[in-house]
Amino acid sequence: MTFHRFIEEKVVRIFWCEHEIEPWNPFCENEPKTQIRPTENIIGGISVKGYVLPHKSAFSSEAAYAKAEGINGWAAQQGFYVYRGKRLLLAGDWLGLFRKEEYYKLVRIKIDLPNTLDTEWQIDIKKSRAYPPMQNRSQLESYAKAVRSIGCEVYRHRGKILKQKAGTSFQPLWCEKKKDNKWSFVVNREHDMIKQIKSMALDNPEKAINTLLSFIEETLPTKTIYINEAKGEESQLEPFMGINPSIITDMMRTMYDNQIKTGKTSEQAKAYLKTVEPFNLFEDLIENL
Asked: Which domain of life does the UniProt lineage start with (predicted)?
């Protein structure tokens, strides 16, 4: 890996026990679905180029995916790849700018340094470590954020590209909602499937409810929720925040009345509601029944 660019350019050939070593290119430039970002030149004659590798399902073959993983695994191979004169100094490191996260594992960014920046980048004698100076850190961070954002989207959507045809629009079942730096997901009530289930409920309400619950269970955006939580940039909206309390109270009242009809006392009915999610979050409303 250290000399892979020299081997690829046929500048050198390396043998081990009479077997010629093949180069390992971390950027998978020959994979059709690899997204290659524009090169950006930053202070000091440094060039930066980002690569977002395909999702596993979009690789040309399982063998190609396995090879791209490298010896340390996908999560460990993400990050910057720092070269000096085409020799790899540092492989898969965010240089203290970011943490390694599962959802950025498809992102690899090439940094080409001239041989005049050894002191500024604190390149040691063995040329196995490098540290970017302050004048480059903000530029690297800005570039990397853009590439990481693309990589995160590929990871979230499992490599699928949503193509909008003329006159049509994509219908998500879940919509992300943001309010006051807090996020949540809501079911898209305008989705055609929801409309069909409403019609189904007229003739077969039980089937309609089970169908709706199945789709909610199977399509819950757990991966996106995980990513949002891990980023920590915004907090999750608390359940029923901003919802009219009467919606909750009406359902509470129905269940409360049903408990009374079964012979429960008012206190017993209220105690029961305090054990039922999500009513357990609203003890003040329960006490006012």
From this structure: Bacteria
